[in-house]
């Protein structure tokens, strides 16, 4: 990336290093400080990874049905869900199409409102994702 230089060392491995690893960990990608920016910049390898069927389903599941660790402070409990929702609601056609072509993620999105355990925060994540899908892929949503 343009701003990364030897003068300002990164806080961890680069995004390309993470994507080139044998066992890519989705959480490492989600919490990388450059992920959202690189999606916006059209990082092809990152887009290919995030749009694979099992990863896109895990992102939707992470945003809408998060695993909550109540031992963490409340602010930290929804951090992963927030990151997943941020990634899924970016103005990126590849991610939108991947959500709509994956049967598992489409099922999660369509059946979300039937869940009795919806809280306001998770509902806002859902609204953000659905709004993006409606604005980006209107013909595929209807």
TrEMBL record:
Q: Which key words tag this protein in UniProt?
A: Cell cycle
InterPro entries, per the entry:
SAPS (IPR007587)
Provide a Gene Ontology MF annotation, just one: protein phosphatase binding
CC annotations in GO: cytosol; nucleus
Q: Which PANTHER family match?
A: FIERY MOUNTAIN, ISOFORM D, SIT4 YEAST -ASSOCIATING PROTEIN-RELATED
What family does this chain come from, according to its entry?
Belongs to the SAPS family.
Specify the protein name. CCR4-NOT transcription complex subunit 11
Provenance organism: Anisakis simplex (Herring worm)
């Amino acid at each position: 990336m343009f701003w990364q230089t030897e003068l300002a060392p990164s806080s961890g491995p680069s995004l390309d290093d993470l994507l080139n690893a044998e066992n890519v960990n989705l959480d490492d990608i989600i919490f990388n400080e450059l992920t959202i920016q690189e999606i916006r910049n059209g990082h092809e390898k990152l887009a290919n990874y995030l749009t694979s069927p099992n990863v896109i389903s895990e992102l939707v599941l992470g945003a809408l049905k998060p695993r909550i660790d109540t031992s963490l402070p409340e602010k930290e409990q929804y951090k992963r869900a927030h990151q997943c929702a941020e990634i899924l609601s970016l103005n990126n056609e590849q991610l939108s199409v991947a959500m709509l072509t994956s049967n598992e993620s489409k099922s999660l999105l369509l059946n979300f409102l039937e869940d009795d355990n919806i809280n306001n925060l998770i509902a806002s994540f859902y609204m953000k994702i659905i709004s993006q899908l409606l604005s980006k892929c209107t013909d595929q949503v209807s």
